[in-house]
Amino acid sequence: VAPGTSAAIGTLTVGGNAVLNGTNTIKLVETNLTSDVLAVGTALQFGGTLKVVNLAGSLHSGDSFQIFTANSGFSGSFTSISPAIPGFNLAWDTNTLATTGLLTVTGAGANDSPTNIVAAFDGANLTLTWPMDHTGWRLQVQTNSLATGLGANWADVPNSTSTNQVILPASSANGAVFYRMVYP
Question: Rounded to two decimals, what is the model's pTM?
Answer without folding.
Answer: 0.61
